[in-house]
Amino acid sequence: MHLVPADRAGRRIIDDHRVCDAIAAVGDSGDVARWAGRFAVLSDPNRLALLLAIHAAAPISVTDLSVATGMNDAAVSQALRLLRTGGLVTGERTGRVIRYRLADPVIHSLLHLVRPPHEAP
């Protein structure tokens, strides 16, 4: 029971090795919060659609993302602003056009699980 914090040491435990395994799996609360933030971004259907489109067709512009997802340019730009702030995508400017690609390798791997590139619907 070496992993049980002192403030929980007095609680009833049935399987101490399972409690230690569970505490180790939860890990650092900061890491849990960062993962929750990633999942919060993925929980919005429009942002997820954008990430899937970027995953399959990067680098891709706002206008092209708008056509691909059925969203208007303003909505795409707003969602991309959140995705950039969260470090999930990055933009490359060529003249007046900014094209986006994934910046987070973990999200890239997760998107492979959601829908591998060029998978038929």
UniProtKB/TrEMBL annotation:
Domain HTH arsR-type per the UniProt entry, residue ranges: 27-121
Signal peptide start-end: none
Highest taxon above the source species: Bacteria
InterPro entries referenced in this protein's UniProt entry, alphabetically: ArsR-like_HTH, HTH_ArsR_DNA-bd_dom, HTH_MarR-typ, Metal_resp_trans_reg, WH-like_DNA-bd_sf, WH_DNA-bd_sf
Molecular functions (GO terms): DNA binding; DNA-binding transcription factor activity
Tagged with keyword Transcription: yes
Xref: CDD domains: HTH_ARSR (cd00090)
Pfam families, alphabetized: MarR_2
Keyword annotations from UniProtKB, A to Z: DNA-binding, Transcription, Transcription regulation
Identification of the protein by name: Transcriptional regulator
Native species: Actinoallomurus iriomotensis
